[in-house]
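[step 3/7] fold_predict: job queued, chain A
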Amino acid sequence: MAEDLLVLASTSPQRRAILAQLGIPFVVIPPPFEEDDGPSTDPVGMVRSHARGKAHSVLPAAEGRPVLGVDTTVVLDGRTWGKPSSPEEAAAMLRMLSGRTHVVVSGLCLLTGEWEELHHETTRVHFRRLDDREVEAYVRSGEWRGRAGGYAIQGRASAFVRAVEGDFWNVVGLPVPLLAELLLRRLPGVYPPGAGV
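[step 4/7] structure written:
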């Protein structure tokens, strides 16, 4: 049955790893959707729009299968911080996050040709004060590449985080409890895996 296989409209290795860990059957179709990661006065609206755009951009190629689109950004001082484009920008982002609390916002769009679910999740992340040597070593590691806010909480940057309020997996890049609730309600053939529905 086509609905037993989820289409992930994302090239993110983190999102692929999370779905695999959950045992959710999926295939990846890279979305032909151009994101605008510039500063935004409405981060929730931006990530919801991006998630929806990604999902809809692959729907024609999904061949009747449900599509999942996700977008994540970091919010600090009233503006959004996407993926740094250079080592210098990554270091600047980390120094800005140092010793402060920021918010990670993800938009999630689950859809088929018949229906659409569009939601968002927010998580507060508290960074301890970072030493310049830590920032420099982290940037040299390259782990910041392709990460909103310039860090991966599940990797070396776990040492930077004093506390997380909300969904940890949202910070990794996929709000798992929200997704599970939607799949249970909309696509019981996909989740929980092995339920035999």
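[step 5/7] annotate
The CA atoms of residues 83 and 104 lie 13 Å apart.
The mean pLDDT is 93.
exit 0
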